[in-house]
Design goal:
heterodimer, A: 116 residues, six-stranded mixed beta sheet, 0% helix, B: 113 residues, seven-stranded mixed beta sheet, 11 strands
């Protein structure tokens, strides 16, 4: 079965310092992985996606993630946090079979707080 | 280019009532998926529609049903509402023949009293 585990429920950083949000996945075959962000009372916005091309994926707003098959990890990073980055972040794997479009399996989320 | 839109934004119902939520997909998309996000949780997959048929279903009871129209828009219906149905309902659209990226709408927040 496919699943993702977000290792931290809450991460707090100071503005201008690096961000690291950790995600491990479980998949019986090469997965497609995503990071989505959800600001308070808003819908989900796609940050970036990995679909078996380059292992280092660059997303919007300066975020990037590296797919490491040996560690079954897909951690999200950003060199310098901004106050506007404060939000909930979800690591997501897609469950696709039989040529279907697939449905998304979400982690439990990591709440990122940014201190001034 | 309009993104995914959902209506209404908020809704209050009482137990036992029925509710219909609506979703218009992103322009050019033909597949619509629905998710339920309880407070403090990640979204959970309800079902997915393509070519006006339910193609996949998550672990939700038959009280949850849906429909997709020829213009690809979709409805989510929930019958016999329970207090536990209170949640943010998210619609996502994608293009079946292409990459599997799903784009989300802002959601409908349902409160059942």
């Amino acid at each position: 079965a496919q699943s993702v585990t977000q290792l931290d429920s809450h991460v707090s950083v100071s503005e201008g310092t690096p961000v690291l949000l950790r995600c491990n996945y479980s998949s019986s075959y090469s997965p497609s992985l995503f990071w989505y962000v959800q600001h308070p009372n808003k819908g989900l916005q796609l940050l970036l996606k990995y679909t078996s091309a380059a292992t280092l994926v660059k997303g919007i707003n300066g975020f990037e993630a590296e797919f490491k098959k040996s560690e079954t990890s897909f951690h999200l990073t950003k060199p310098s946090a901004h106050m506007s980055d404060a939000a909930e972040y979800f690591c997501v794997v897609i469950l696709a079979y039989g040529g279907s479009q697939g449905n998304l399996i979400f982690g439990k989320g990591t709440k990122l707080s940014v201190k001034p | 280019d309009a993104g995914v839109t959902q209506s209404p934004t908020h809704l209050i119902k009482t137990r036992g009532q029925q509710v219909t939520l609506r979703c218009s997909p992103k322009s050019g998309h033909d597949t619509v998926s629905w998710y339920q996000q309880a407070l403090g949780q990640g979204p959970q997959f309800i079902f997915q529609y393509y070519e006006e048929e339910e193609r996949q279903r998550g672990n939700f009871p038959d009280r949850f049903s849906g429909h997709q129209f020829p213009n690809y828009s979709s409805e989510l219906n929930v019958n016999a509402l329970l207090l536990g149905d209170s949640a943010l309902y998210l619609c996502a659209s994608s293009l079946r023949a292409s990459e599997k990226t799903q784009y989300f709408g802002p959601g409908t927040r349902l409160l059942v009293l």
